[in-house]
Amino acid sequence: MSKFDFRKSIEACASYYGEEADDVRNYMNEGQEVALSLPNRGPIRFNEDGTLHQGIADAYSQYGFYVFEGVIDESELTDIEEDIADMRSRLPSHPGSEVDSNGRPAIGVGSKAPGLNWSKPLSDPLGGSELANGRHQVKLKELNAADDAPESTPFILLGSLRFSEAALRTYGHPELLKVAASINGEDFAPFNESLFIKDAGVGAAVSWHQDGDTYWGHSDFDENIHGFNFMVQLYGSSPVNGVWVLPGTHKLGKIDIKNLVLESGCERLKGAVPIVCAPGDAVICNRQLVHGSFANTGFEPRLTVNFGFHKRSSVLDVEGAGIHCPAAVYDQEVIRERSKVIGYAIDARQQKYPDEEPYDYKPFAESGEQYLWTPEAKASLKDYNIYDLSI
User: Dihedral sign, CA of 371, 374, 377, 381?
Assistant: First the structure.
């Protein structure tokens, strides 16, 4: 079987849509075919001077996303999987609970920073709401889960680096950080980190949207001004469980998504393609790209280790969008405080992989700051994501 053979899940997905089944099946299959034909996937490559290979940079600029294949090896994937399994066993037993399913204090309890978001199985909890400044303009179709499905299922875990050392080490991956420097400059700044949990048969939809609030219509607007996200895939992603994107829309400014739905005649936007990945692939996705995901009615789970970065010029002395960080303006001290996790991640990775050349983060190299991953450092991350730099 091909690593991208998702026929059974596509058939299962179509069966949820009744009279629309044929349309859904065709949309999924045709979208995958187009996605795999695009020239925007392959291993990470760099020029001799250490910058991102020009062919990759050009493809990313054209389409707004690129699939870096085979970034995370099998051993590291196993570490992530084991770590996430342990972490999930310590999640609250249900929304509002302060204990896990074994009666232990649940992770995140007592935190000031946002943590776990829940959803009803196969729902669209964000679509059509005012959450995240109303960026999810339309609600995707909500489907009926199996009779034995739970009332609520984990959806998004924010501030994930405080809960998973394996995710922290992936955050410090030297080649991914080199990519970040090539696109956002060597003084790039962090955005936020999360785990997207799309369990098979229950995973919620994420309505079509563009990330970003600050620079729509701004005189400084450009295709990279709201930053990007890396999406590291633990199990891979398919047309059924994965993110769909509308290539090239990251260059067009703020888009009327309600109108796109009207023009398409339904929620399946014309021209959109799925981001199809194998386990260990890492996607770079421009935050301005129109993107979303349907409810996971297939057989494959998706677990995405998600983390993003900004150009420093996009956040320095800029008023926040009011979604994450409580600071009114992101000054040097706020950015420095939020950037500590980069230093901890680099050292945590170096401790695990001593033969790997670690990334040298320019702001710390210039200031002489050193961050060592210790039990004290781990404790200091309790509410680190309260300073997520949202623009």
Answer: positive
User: In this structure, are residues 239 and 274 in contact, taking their beta carbons and an 8 Å threshold?
Assistant: yes
Is 2 contained in some domain? no
CATH code for the domain in which residue 278 is found = 2.60.120.620
Structure confidence at residue 328 as a pLDDT band (50, 70, 90): confident
Of the candidates 32, 20, 21, 10, the one whose C-alpha atom is nearest the C-alpha of residue 265 is 20
Percentage of the chain beyond pLDDT 90 is: 94
Structural domain count of the chain: 1
Q: Is residue 1 part of a domain?
A: no
Phi-psi label, residue 387: left if phi above 0, alpha if psi -120 to 50, beta otherwise: alpha
Which residues, 6 or more positions from 264, have their beta carbon under 8 angstroms from its beta carbon?
270
Q: Are 280 and 70 in contact (CB under 8 A)?
A: yes
- pLDDT of 322 strictly over 80: no
Residue 140 pLDDT level (bands cut at 50, 70, 90):
very high
For residue 354, what pLDDT is reported? 98
233 closest CA partner among 308, 303, 159: 303
User: For 256-325, what is the HEC assignment?
Assistant: CHHHHHHHHCCCCCCCCEECCECCCCEEEEECCCCEEECCCCCCCCEEEEEEEEECHHHHCCEECCCCCC
- Residue 74 within any structural domain of the chain: yes
Overall size of the chain counted in residues: 391
- Range of the structural domain that residue 277 is part of: 7-387
Using CA atoms, how far apart are residues 44 and 52, in angstroms rounded to an integer? Answer: 8
Average pLDDT value for residue range 317-335: 86
The per-residue b/e assignment along 191-202, b for 16 or more CB within 10 angstroms, e otherwise, is bbbbbbbbbbbb
C-alpha–C-alpha distance, residues 260 and 244, integer Å: 14
168 within a domain of the structure (yes/no): yes
